[in-house]
Design goal:
The strands form three sheets. A six-stranded mixed β-sheet has the order 1-5-6-4-2-3. Strands 7-9-10-11-12 form a five-stranded mixed β-sheet. The relative contact order is 0.16. The protein has two domains: about 190 residues, no CATH class; about 160 residues, Collagenase (Catalytic Domain) (3-Layer(aba) Sandwich), CATH 3.40.390. It starts with 8 loop residues before the first strand and ends with a strand. The protein contains five helices and 15 strands. By secondary structure, it is α/β, with parallel strands linked by helices. The structure holds zinc ion (ZN). This is M6 family metalloprotease domain-containing protein.
Length: about 425
C-alpha cells in the first residue's frame, strides 16, 4: 500500500508553560495597516490575540512550543549518523547516502525561513554497522522508543552512541539524524517508517549524560523531485510541528493537501503554510495581521514564495481556533501551484497531531483539481486557492479576493462578524 506521509511518534513533555504574549507586538495590532516585513528583520514567534493557546503538552498548532523541542531560528546544528546492518549492508558510500539529503535539507530550510533558519549538519561519514541482523531489532511502522527494551530504536541508538563515544559531543547539537541504509527494510512505497522522537528525553543518554532526543530516523527512499523533504518533515516535528495528515490508519484524503509538507512530503516540492512559518519564528511581526476586531479589512498579501511583504492574516475564532489567509503561487519550493491565489484554512490547537488540526477550504469543491498527474498528492485540493472575484465564507468570516496587482500581490478583504 502506498502511504502518503510519514509517521511520527511524539513523546510528550510534562513541563508546559503558558504563552506569554508580548505587549508591544505589532502582530496583535489588528488595525496597524499595511506593513512590509523583510528578511533583514528578525522573525518572531507568535504572540498576541492570534497566538492560539496550547491544550496539549506535545506538538500542536499552538503558538507556544513546550520546552524540550529544538529551536527553529538562528543556527541550528544537527549531527547526522549513517547506519547499516550485517544482513543489509549499504551498497552506496556514506557520502552518497548523505548526499541524498544534504545540502538540500539545509537549503530548503534556508529558503522556506527566508534566511532565518541556518541549518548546519555535521555528518559522521562512515556506516555504523549494527551488531544484529535488521529483523532482530523488530522495527515496524509505529515502533516506539522504549528504553526498557533491548530492541527497537533504543537498541539501535545505544549502538550508535557506543560507536561514536568519545568522538561526538552531543551537547553541541540541537537535532540528531539517523540515515539508515536504504537496503534495510521495505521500500518507502510499501511501508513508511521514518519517525521522529521529539520533545522529552527518550530515556537514553550519552555517556556524559546528554539526553538523546529530537532524533529522526530516515528509512528507505521516497520518490518525487525532492525526496529529501522527508527529513525536513521529520525535523519539523523536533521544532514542534504536528502531522496534518490523518495518522489513524484509515485512508482519508489529506486535509491540507500539498500546501504543507507536514501533510504531504511526497511528490513534487512544496512549502510550509504561512501559519507554520509564523509558529516557527520565520515571519517578522509586521508580516502577520491579526484581525481580532469585528469589521472589514483590506489587505495585500504577497505569495509565500516571495520573501517580503505581508504573509498571513489570522482571524481568531476562540482561544484555540482561527481562520488563516495566505497567498500561494509557484516558487522555488512550491513547484506545482497550478491555480495561484488565496488559500484559506482553519486551524485548531485542540485537535491532535494526526487528527486534522488544519483544514484547507476548497474554492472548487467537487473538482478533480488542476494537478492530477501525481498520485502522491491530493489532486482535489490542488486548485483550492480562491482567485479574483471569488469569496469564501467560514465560521462567520468572509474572505473576498479583490484582485492582483502588477507585482503579483493579492488584494483581499476580510470581514469578521461581530
Ligand atoms: Zn510526521
Amino acid at each position: 500500500m502506498k502511504a502518503l506521509a510519514i509517521a511520527v511518534m511524539v513523546i510528550t513533555t510534562l513541563a508546559l508553560t503558558a504563552p506569554a504574549p508580548s505587549q508591544a507586538d505589532p502582530a496583535d495590532a489588528g488595525d496597524a495597516g499595511e506593513a512590509t516585513g523583510s528578511p533583514a528583520t528578525d522573525g518572531r514567534r507568535p504572540s498576541g490575540p492570534c497566538a492560539l493557546a496550547s491544550v496539549t503538552p506535545g506538538v500542536s498548532e499552538a503558538a507556544h512550543t513546550p520546552a524540550g523541542y529544538a529551536r527553529s531560528t538562528g543556527t541550528v546544528r544537527a549531527i547526522t549518523f549513517l547506519v547499516d546492518f550485517p544482513d543489509a549492508p549499504a551498497r552506496s558510500t556514506p557520502q552518497e547516502r548523505y548526499g541524498e539529503f544534504f545540502p538540500a535539507v539545509a537549503d530548503f530550510y534556508r529558503t522556506s525561513s527566508y534566511g532565518r533558519l541556518d541549518y548546519r549538519s555535521t555528518p559522521v561519514l562512515r556506516w555504523i554497522r549494527m551488531s544484529r541482523p535488521y529483523a532482530a531489532y523488530r522495527i515496524e511502522r509505529g515502533t516506539p522508543f522504549d528504553a526498557s527494551r533491548d530492541d527497537g530504536y533504543h537498541a539501535l541508538s545505544k549502538e550508535i552512541l557506543a560507536a561514536v563515544d568519545g568522538t561526538v559531543d552531543l551537547r553541541r547539537y540541537d537535532l540528531v539524524n539517523v540515515l539508515l541504509a536504504p537496503e534495510a527494510g521495505p521500500p518507502a512505497t510499501e511501508d513508511v517508517r521514518s519517525v521522529t522522537f521529539a520533545g522529552a528525553p527518550t530515556g537514553l543518554a550519552a555517556a556524559d549524560g546528554t539526553p538523546f532526543k529530537n532524533v529522526s530516523f530516515i528509512w528507505s527512499r521516497q520518490t518525487g523531485d525532492s525526496p529529501f523533504r522527508v527529513l525536513n518533515h521529520e525535523n519539523a516535528h523536533s521544532f514542534g510541528l504536528p502531522d496534518l495528515y490523518f495518522t489513524g490508519g484509515v485512508r482519508q484524503k489529506t486535509p491540507v493537501g500539498h500546501w504543507d509538507l507536514m501533510d504531504e512530503d511526497w511528490g513534487p516540492s512544496n512549502d510550509f503554510l504561512a501559519w507554520h512559518k509564523w509558529k516557527l519564528g520565520w515571519l517578522a511581526p509586521g508580516q502577520v495581521h491579526c484581525l481580532n476586531a469585528p469589521g472589514r479589512r483590506e489587505l495585500t498579501l504577497t505569495p509565500t514564495s516571495v520573501p517580503d511583504g505581508t504573509k498571513l492574516a489570522v482571524v481568531p475564532l476562540s482561544a484555540t481556533r482561527a481562520v488563516t489567509v495566505e497567498a500561494r503561487a509557484p516558487g522555488p519550493l512550491d513547484h506545482v501551484v497550478c491555480r495561484p491565489g488565496v488559500l484559506v484554512s482553519t486551524v485548531a490547537t485542540d485537535v491532535a497531531s494526526g487528527a486534522g488540526p488544519v483544514r484547507t477550504l476548497d474554492a472548487t469543491p467537487g473538482s478533480h483539481g488542476c494537478h492530477t498527474s501525481d498520485p502522491n498528492l491530493n489532486a482535489g485540493l490542488s486548485d483550492a486557492p480562491y482567485v479574483a472575484g471569488e469569496r469564501c465564507a467560514v465560521a462567520g468570516v468572509t474572505v473576498e479576493v479583490l484582485g492582483t496587482d502588477a507585482a503579483g500581490r493579492w488584494r483581499v478583504a476580510v470581514t469578521r462578524g461581530a
